[in-house]
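Task: fold both queries, return tokens.
Query 1:
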Amino acid sequence: MKLSSVYSLLFLTASFCTFSQGTKDPSFEEVISLKGLSNPQISPDGRHILFHGHSTDWENNRFDTEIWMSRDGGEPFQLTNNPGKSSAGMLWSPDGKWIAFLSDRGDKQQIQVTRSEGGEPFQLTNADGSISSFRWSPDGKQIAFRQSEDKKDENDARKDKYGEFAIEDEEYSLNQLWIVDFIPENLGRDWLPQEKEDSVLKESVKPRLLMDSVPFSINGFEWSPDGKMIAFEHQPDPILISFMKRDISVYDIEKEEYRLLVDNASSDGLLDWSPDSKSILYVTDLDDTTSNFYKNAKIFRIDINGKNNKQLAADFDENIGGVEWNENGIFGLAWQKTRRQLLSIDPKNGEYAIVATSPDKIWSYSFSDDGSKMALTGAMYDGLTELYSVSYPVSGLTRITSSSDQISDWKVAKSEIISWPSEDGATIDGVLHKPADYDPSKKYPLLIVIHGGPTGISTPQPVPAYVYPQVQWLNKGALILRPNYRGSAGFGEAFRSLNVENLGVGDAWDVLSGVKYLEDQGIIDGDKVGAMGWSQGGYISAFLTTNSDKFKAISVGAGISNWMTYYVNTDIHPFTRQYLKATPWSDKEIYEKTSPMTNINNAKTPTLIQHGEFDRRVPTPNAYELWQGLQDVGAETKLIIYKGFGHGISKPKERLAAIWHNWQWFGKYIWDEEIEIPE
């Protein structure tokens, strides 16, 4: 069994999603504090379900994850408790008697094990570094795990002699594959190995390195069902953009050697083994190294002798991910517009079928050993994510959790799916959120929240959030539009390709035409329109602030301001080359056409800029360039740098600050209010 998660399916007709509305306007802190769940893992016999439970720790300013369990469909209870550290990544042993998971209970993330019947966890490994992932062997006698090679002595020696420096793209540690024996007799019932002498732990569970001095870094890996082999995906180094050079090999446990199996010119990713251990399933871009970011990846099966290489679901027009192969067939999830549904693929003829359509958005799933039981997490359009159990073939969907009870007395968003024609005739879908007390005779201020990606997606939901106080704006008396602009996931490869060589320009068409559509419907006040977004949504917001005077206020979150600035600073250069089909040196004009800074002299809109201090994806020079340009042309602007963060605001206190900053900014320019942020 293993976790599977991927993409889904929607209808073009407009539909409303409502449930019993409460009367409470939730605070920002209450929204941030909503508890969530993910990653269901059903026991081999299909009786019990593990899952991740997510909560907010305000005191330690962190979001925590612990492991929860539902026994025989009963009320879930918390299985682990590691305050300030978290426990996650759990897997059942093949016999269902043990649960292994990752936790940094000491100074490094190690494998812990606990009896499924209950009891304290035991630390199984004492590896030199932190362990990032692991898999049980099919007989349950071993665990393979991945960790980075230890370069501490080497790095310390260099530092002692030459001080500290870093050579770009050369400072990394390869990820290696290890195996450790699992011997239950070495784990006493009532003692924790870490309480014993360190030497005792190391002797009893000493791991061994499978492949030494190999010229690659290991990503994912899977045991063959017969336990004789491990298939693994690898790339020359762990640097992010090296994913385009991923290949797949198979390690023979008895022979202690590996051989290359799949080596297309572009990215090859391991998915799963066939139940009979004779084939593997993989996802690939074949030889395409110019459109990895927006074209559909392809799923293939291949025998381990290198023969019978066959594409599956070739006519399915979306990406399929989180794929699993069991006796019932091949399964995965895929976006189809704003629904995310479970599909099956026949491993022989490659044909696909949708096999689960509820809940509206299925996030992840897990099968029992015999394939007759499933656990899945998903959300209805008007609810929060819940845990479900279901029989297969799909029937008898049973909800186990009650997460949506957290918002039962809240005034939340009413969601409607709408569509409109863009400037070039492309049909654009979006999610229109309305207040609980919506009055069709009124004209409302409009706030546009633009998702990232560009291959992200916005879907109906009762509490849209992140750093934007959307529920509170709705309850204040606004409409919110979340457009699925060209390039969004769920609408097919051709739609995702519409902003190639047209970034910003086409995106702006999609947003502005959405505003016009709502204005023509007579439901918004066209003089009170604001826009915002993070990452790619921040870029589109920046483009709008320098290319349109339609907006009263804009907020740019971690957004690109100049594609040349972005290109020379980011950690993912191929993204720009693939979408713009050029480097700044080969086609300066396309970089100028699509960059917000090109038309900075036209900027008038008051613009808030929010950015993480250590953002590698969209580095801070983008924020400073836009901020300085806006100042130079006399546009009102404010730049806020969130200290210690990368591309996202991942701690609750700083997320609260970012929400307040947006509340204050749009309050001033949309509602003409001077709002003081509480001390």
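Query 1 returned. Query 2:
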Amino acid sequence: MTMPTAKKSMISIISIMLISIKIFAAPTITSVTGVSYFIPAGGTATMAAFGGMAGTCASPSSTTTCNTCTDATTTTIKACNPKSINPNLVITVGFTTATAITNRYVQLQTGLGTTSYAGIGTPTRMTIAANGSGSVTTTWGQLCAADAGIASSTCIGATATTFDANRTLGVGIDDSGNDQIEAGEVTSIPVFYQYVNAATATKQKFYSSDCSGDAAARGACGFTLTPGDSKLYIDKFFASGVVNGAPVKDGTDPDWLGVAFFVAPVASAASIANNVGPVIKAYNSKYGLDDSKLDGLNNYTKYCVMMGNINKAYNIIKFTATTPDDAAMCGTPSEVVGVLDDKHCFISTAAFGSDMAPEVQTFRQFRNQFLLTNSWGRSFVKMYYQYGPTAADFISKSEGLRTMTRVALYPFLAFSYVSVEYGFNVALLTLMVALILLSSVSKFLFKHKKVLAVFVLIFSFNLRAQESSPRLIKHPGAAEGLIRIDKDGNYIYAMTKDLKKQSGHLYIGQANNPDVSISIDATDINGNPTGAVNSYNFDDFYKGTSKILIGYDYEWFPWAEKTMLGIQAGASFMYADGHGRLVASSTTATNPVSQEKFSFLTLPLNLGLVYRFQYKDTQMFVPYVDGGGTYMVLAEKREDKSAPNFTGGFGFYGAGGLLINLTAMDRETAQELNSEYGIGNLWLSLEFKAVEVEAETFKFSSQFFNAGVSFDF
């Protein structure tokens, strides 16, 4: 029986349709290069490509974008683009295809929307394996010429400055094999373009610093500056008339990307607005950054800042300030100090034993009078602060190194002393005379080597040979009650319950902050000493801290069978965070609070005796007293510096409290704690404690209650 002709025809048509569906596979775009900005696929982002031109490329390239923000041919700040395209720049679109193609046409396509496309350039025949990749190219000139609004291979339209709305860039593959690329065979992404005539600044618009001058402000229209150490902080952005407001764009312009800052060491804001060759110091990829900063600046040098808005075509337009305002747009970086900055002079302190030693004070006076008053001196001090703490830590560990360092520092100490007391010129003259005398003495000593040997013996008296003590090694099981080891190697222990001789005590309380202060030799904004010395205390840097103190004590009772008198060793800490202060005073504030964040640790280290009024193991309430010596360490670290500052001092502590036996309430739990974890008693502690420290650089006096838990083991 034969199949009817009509039925055969229908089956053939369906088969052809199925085959067509099977082989059809639209390309997947993976990358676009040769553009100012590209958004890859991912998350909620829509893949898109952007190109922008503002200003003139000095050396246009077909392979890379150029930076027109270094154009030195203008006498005023102007629109520019750090990633500008040019008509000859090649756009390369990478793609993949899930289904293999053999000798098929592939061509870049552009259109409005996703229903109508026109080819760009000549189609290329390609053979690509399944899941293979390929790429096609065009130039910005060809793409601009294909847009009805621009219609020019120069990418400069007669009237339009942006592409038509919904302009797309796509890859088409001739899946049907008819040597034509149709709409259904194209995958495309949005493409945006914007041209800005920098010469006439058609897209440039100046705003007041707080947006008040334009109710319809576009983009970010203002900012505020705060000086820091070698930096300026951008405190706030203003957009749409409010702090950190949502920026608004004009019509079909590309979306906003962020802001750019033009920074120059100039005398006034008016100078930067007319600065030749604007150079971008930094730009951010989003608005509303409260911690944005312009880094790498010189302290005590005035900088003025102009802000422009960057859109996704990377054109920088719409600059701040109709009337340049020094108060809003300029700032002077200054050294920033914490409350411990004058407590440690690093290498000299390590050598002479105390930062309050007269020698260290002389070095500090020399620094203030002769180093911080000029740029090369400030650079030396900055380098010393960076590497000095590491060297000081290494020196302080060896008495021999400390002695050698003192010997090496004495000539510099003498020079510093003469400079401070009699003037720098007198010190230079004295140094020259000393060098002449030293040269003569050296020649004499090397001619009379016996005299030299006597000097070496005299000055090497501090060398000592250190003997190591023999170590006694006890059996590892002795402390746990090991009786003997049998012939098979088994360890035999006593099964009787031993009295616990150790205890741990974890507690928390609220104590006073240390009484520590700093005297800042004030300078003007140019770094010149004003003669004023301003004092600040701990609360000026760390106001509103919690004062929470957390500690742990270890207690050992060697005579527990006869008396509960033991040795106590412990440590505790308090943490605070705050901000430093600028050394330079402004016209509105004396040593204003800086943006740089500081962290502060108070670390008491205790060693003493403890006595418990405990007469039996299951006693419910046990009063106790303890006391002894303490060494308190103060440490302060700035967030952007690696080395902290330290100081410390000795004192004493005393406490009295009550232990409440929690395990006495539940014998089964007590037995389990003892057998499983080796804990004899678990206590709740209530304690009153007093700590007194009076060091050369600070005081600490606090009486406070604390509570915690204690456990015997």
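Both queries returned. Flag for query 2: Residues 5-23, 282-291, 455-475 have pLDDT under 50 and may be disordered.
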